[in-house]
Amino acid sequence: MVAMARQPAVAPHPAAEQNDLLTVGVEEEFLLVDPETGAAVPAVDEVMEQVPPELRGQVEREFQTSQIEIGSPPGVELSSIRHSLGLLRAALADAAERAGAQLLAIGTGPVDGPVPPVVDKPRFDRMVERYRLLVPGPGNNGMHVHVGVPDPDTGVQVLNHVRPWLPILHAITANSPFSRSEDTGYASWRSIEWERWPSVAPTPYLASHEHYRRLIRQLISSGVMLDEGMLYWYARLSAKYPTVELRIGDVCPTVDDAVLVAALVRGLVATALDDIAAGRPPLPTDHHLLVGAHWRAAHDGLEGSAVDPTSGELRPAWDLLHQLIGRLGPALERHDDLAEVTGLLEGLREHGTGAARQRMAYARTGRLQDVVAQVARQTRGEPPA
Fold it and tell me: Function, please (predicted)?
């Protein structure tokens, strides 16, 4: 939910620089629940004790004691990202089981229960003191993708180019339709809860890197943020590494879903770099239209409509996604990702987003505990039914 001081060690790979290929790294946040009731439990300390020592550098506590986070090492090959995420998810699921909990790759807790406390850290204490009831329920769990860029000035230009296309990627990740034991009517309820924080928003159009830095200083001095770590724009520059970080939606239910999003994010950044090199300007999309487009993505996921960033009109979300894939085609081919992305999209079309899968599971039995069990299996690596 809240960005930690640690970020994945995503740095430009020498081979990537030589071949114009970009590194990509992924952060994933998970919910810890009671395996019997499905309600969130404050078990992060117990789970951390059970994580194998050789993996502890890639596992962190998050904002609430019912959350835990992993970060993959950077890679050029999607296969390395897949391997890292699969290994870390399986190890963390085993650690949770040994601690008497269950690991869920889910945007927020579907089953009502007591709200677990915030992790005991001075920074988090200050956040709770200032923002009070903005702190969410059982925990908001997102996915963050880092892609290497040459320098901050170029990174700011990349942010301008990618911002119109983030709502459709937001829709792909929708994975939290239930909250407080009810269907919220949204595909990503996590997104709606998350937007209560004052620094959560689509990335504004930025005139320069100095403009970016000036906005950060002003947001901190105004009290909107405590520090730079609270810059929760949907895309931002990493404060520590030479990357852009896209923070677009819910944690994905499966490794396949996460790899698909990572590939599309890298393709989007690579396409932006191509446009910048060719002198092509970013698509001029109004900020308020982007706010509406992200709301629509949270409401509909991929199973409904999406806002076309070029016209502002509603279109079937899948049509807009196919348009984006056509736009990213050359970059996907250059990274040797196109065939895998095509296959993963076919699977997504067949099974639906995480939100759609949860609703189908609930429709079969009417039990949220069965939804939780399905999400737990997919988190571990079982494919969608």
Answer: ATP-dependent carboxylate-amine ligase which exhibits weak glutamate--cysteine ligase activity.
Residue 215 backbone phi and psi in degrees, to 5: -60, -40
Residue tagged 């996907």 (tokens): 332
Contact 188, 174 (CB under 8 A): yes
Q: CATH top-level class for 14-380?
A: alpha beta
What predicted TM-score, i.e. pTM, was given to this entire model?
Answer: 0.94
Spatial contact of 231 and 225, defined as CB atoms under 8 Å apart: yes
d(CA 289, CA 312): 7
Only one residue has tokens 């109004």, namely: 286
Residues 6 or more apart from 284 whose CB is under 8 A from it? Answer: none
CA separation for the pair 361, 358 (Å, rounded) = 5
Q: Give the residue ranges of DSSP H helices in 203-254.
A: 209-221
pLDDT at 109 over 90: yes
Nearest Cα neighbor of 173 from 88, 86, 261, 235 is 261
Q: Where are the alpha helices (DSSP H) in the chain?
A: 14-19, 44-50, 78-98, 122-131, 152-162, 166-172, 189-194, 209-221, 255-277, 287-300, 317-334, 338-351, 354-365, 368-380
Q: In the chain, what are the domain boundaries?
A: 14-380
Amino acid 70 reads I
State residue 188 phi and psi, 5-degree precision.
-130, 90
Q: What is the pLDDT of residues 50-100, one digit of tens each?
A: 999 999 999 999 999 999 999 999 999 999 999 999 999 999 999 999 999
| Cα 7 → chain centroid | 14
As a whole number of angstroms, the distance between CA 366 and CA 348 comes to 24
